């Protein structure tokens, strides 16, 4: 009952917004409509389909690019190929190519059908954008931009901008990109500069020092573009080919999404989770990827158990060792995770690099040595009071220092080495570290116990 | 020797750039100069001071706001209060107030001296901005903006913009904010719209549907502003007071920094690291904060040991239990961390909320149950083969299912509950979860062993 009310509320809100949109009186952002539509989809498939069929194509173009990829993948099951083609033609090229890519992930044939219904230019652009690798700057650019040549006067260019905007072919404009007759990029002029010039003036008259000269190659890694945006506070960045010909631009809101995705990936990788899989709707896909990681962890855990197995007679003769032994491993794991996380993050933010490696490792070793000594003292006293065996206190204290020290050292060294070999330091470093802290923890504690106590 | 060459290289680069800057021919971004200056500071204090004294104030204003807070804190030890005052007056108000705040953290008196050297308006603005709480939108805004009234003609406003820009009082302009005579915000017009209108036209003539109506209250949480930027792809956002009077604006590059800081905080919190402390230079401060977290973890680990202690006679009679017991706890910890991390991140990204709690918990319980069954089977077989005790395989398999199931359940429930009680779900949830998975892991394994095997 509650659900039916909710469904009706959302449906009415969406249908009203559609009417308002048609009248030009809508004040709800497409993002918010996308979220409502998602909710409706979760609650009732049929009603979702009903509403989808009623959304006009230009509005749908704005809504659909705010929706997660698993919904884009299935959109062909809800609305006709022809309507999807119309929607695609109304999208910015980066959003359009993403939509076609997502649909092709589910059904390559439908994606081709939709492409065939587009005009040649749109089709070529989408195919071009989708030919880039995921990590290449080109796959994030849009070809829609505002450009002009040096010989043109500003007034003519603005008239062109006006008509492009009226046809809704251009949006989110921050610069005019100046190009020569071969489409080679000369530089960009911010609108805040352009607006100060007279319309009769020619672009040639804009002084050199007002030009923005940043650009990035279409094949370069998107993280290079991200760095330029972060360091130089850019609003948009020109994308050029090997001959410096202007191909497109990347805007700050695209970069914003890239950063958020990178951060999610980093966080997930450290926790042994795959970011792509987690964005899927299927519990099966999510669970399978997580299982792989748990499987790797099982191997690590068994390794640690084998180490413990070496000392079974020691444990048998003093069961207090079994009681205390997880403490050393756990403290090492935690201290190591602290170091690892900080190192991975600071490398990602560009705050430390391979050149600073020695400085970082020194810092981490000092911190872990001092903390190791502090917690060695505390746990030594506790173990002594608990089991009334002074030497047991000494054993756990010594192994605490050893394990925290190695946790700090390896927590810093592992990600630095992985980065050196161009492996993403967030992926896999946790499991290597845990193996180290578990093995060192159990081996040092039980080994020292065998030497000192027996 | 290598260091001396390096010092000289950096010093020469910086001194050259200073000369080029004075001639107006510099093409190095202040960000890159800031990074070089930081390197020089690390290598040689004296040379750093020498170069700092030679940087002209307007360039220093641009460099200093790219430097980390611990360098800003100490800047008064390197250059005179008078120069810092000049530098401050050349900064945007948000950067200026941050600089004064950082200096005051080290020495309140010097901060006051610098403030007293500023003109009254600058001083008031800085004091106003620094009166906001860290989480309030007001503390991220700058008061420099381009505004106009409805009665003004566009040409006059653009002339004003031109002279403000020539005096370097205004930069990074995306909109003109329209206000009434009481400074109340009417709306914003993007430059890409404004440029299309004739200069003779009045702002009153700009149609309603070209106005951007988003704004945020100066006392509202910065995360609300972040959401508006992410959802609606904004470039800048007006900040208003309770009477809707325009106070300032937040730009996308500020929000970008906020997002990166939030992500760092989230990642660090989950790993038991304090983000503020890690930005300090002092190893002592960093180590102390980490020790607090390790101390909490020690209590957790001892709790787990107490649980093991209950079963000391069981372990004594079958030492294989001691060998195998870390496996169950470790797998639970890992599975729980997977769930916890995904839940925390998706809540932060607004993808799941308290209303979806049931759906999220269901999903996580299903995944952990299935993975629990898979790994129960695997570890059951391994334990049986290893120790040749069939019932031991059964015990570890059962406890694996129990622990992975509780890991999935609590990994989802803990952050959702913390969020419900308005506690940051990233902070503290890891330690609560580890306690659960350790205690449940050891208790179920050793408890079942006592029941079934003995």
TrEMBL record, chains A, B:
Q: What InterPro entries does the annotation carry?
A: CBS_dom, CBS_dom_sf, Mg_transptr_MgtE_intracell_dom, MgtE_N_sf, MgtE_transporter, SLC41_membr_dom, SLC41_membr_dom_sf
Transmembrane residue ranges: 291-311, 317-344, 365-387, 393-418, 430-453
Subcellular location, principal: membrane
Keyword terms, alphabetized: CBS domain, Cell membrane, Magnesium, Membrane, Metal-binding, Transmembrane, Transmembrane helix, Transport
What function does this protein fulfil? Acts as a magnesium transporter.
Family of the protein in this entry: Belongs to the SLC41A transporter family.
Q: What is this protein called?
A: Magnesium transporter MgtE
- Organism of origin is Halarcobacter ebronensis
